[in-house]
């Protein structure tokens, strides 16, 4: 089993990053749905604080994934179509932009941010309203957009799996 990608299959590192992020996104979408549909309930109060921690984890994994994709650019399985390549590019962009917006909102609101006990952002003593407004406007909306794209991504994997006239792409990522 190769660490690096090949023209017919993603390598161990790409697959590990993909599936770890998939688990992270399941948790992110679950906690976001709780926050949206069942705010101020005991379960949301208990689980919502994990949303920023998991979000930052997924952000770090996304950065690693982009770097790894660039390293493997010439070896990766080719996109099946222009639309497929575009869809993956949009997913990668959202994986980076959505958590960056959350960090921007946090910074603008002058809130501290720590990750696993490590302080990454200290209060400055000054709020920056445009940061709060911009990130507040886009973070959640882009998150729901990403959920729709992820469901479309999964749907297309199923279509490719079931159709005899297209390439089964699932084995590339297993």
UniProtKB/TrEMBL annotation:
Q: Which is an annotated GO molecular function term of this record? A: electron transfer activity
Q: Where in the cell is it found?
A: Cell membrane
Q: Which InterPro entries match?
A: Cyt_b561_bac/Ni-Hgenase (IPR011577), Cytochrome_b561_oxidase (IPR052168), Di-haem_cyt_TM (IPR016174)
Primary location: membrane
Q: Which UniProt keywords apply?
A: Cell membrane, Electron transport, Heme, Iron, Membrane, Metal-binding, Transmembrane, Transmembrane helix, Transport
Q: Has keyword Cell membrane?
A: yes
Question: What cofactor is needed?
Answer: heme b
Q: Where is the Cytochrome b561 bacterial/Ni-hydrogenase domain?
A: 10-173
Question: What processes in GO biological process is this protein linked to?
Answer: respiratory electron transport chain
GO cellular component terms given for this protein: plasma membrane
In terms of PANTHER family, this protein maps to:
CYTOCHROME B561, CYTOCHROME B561 HOMOLOG 2
| Family of the protein in this entry | Belongs to the cytochrome b561 family.
Protein name from the UniProt record: Putative cytochrome b561
Species: Advenella mimigardefordensis (strain DSM 17166 / LMG 22922 / DPN7)
């Amino acid at each position: 089993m190769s660490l690096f990608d090949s023209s017919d299959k993603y390598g161990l590192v790409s697959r590990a990053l993909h599936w770890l992020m998939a688990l992270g996104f399941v948790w992110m979408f679950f906690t976001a749905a709780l926050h949206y549909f069942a705010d101020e309930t005991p379960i949301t109060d208990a689980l919502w604080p994990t949303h920023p921690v998991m979000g930052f984890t997924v952000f770090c994994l996304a950065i690693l994934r982009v770097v790894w994709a660039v390293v493997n650019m010439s070896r990766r399985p080719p996109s099946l179509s222009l639309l497929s390549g575009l869809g993956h590019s949009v997913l990668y962009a959202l994986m980076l932009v959505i958590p960056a917006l959350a960090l921007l909102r946090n910074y603008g609101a002058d809130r501290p941010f720590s990750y696993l006990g490590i302080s990454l952002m200290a209060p400055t003593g000054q709020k920056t309203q445009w940061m709060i407004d911009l990130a507040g406007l886009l973070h959640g909306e882009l998150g729901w957009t990403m959920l729709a794209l992820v469901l479309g991504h999964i749907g297309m994997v199923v279509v490719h799996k079931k159709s005899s006239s297209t390439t089964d792409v699932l084995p590339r990522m297993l």
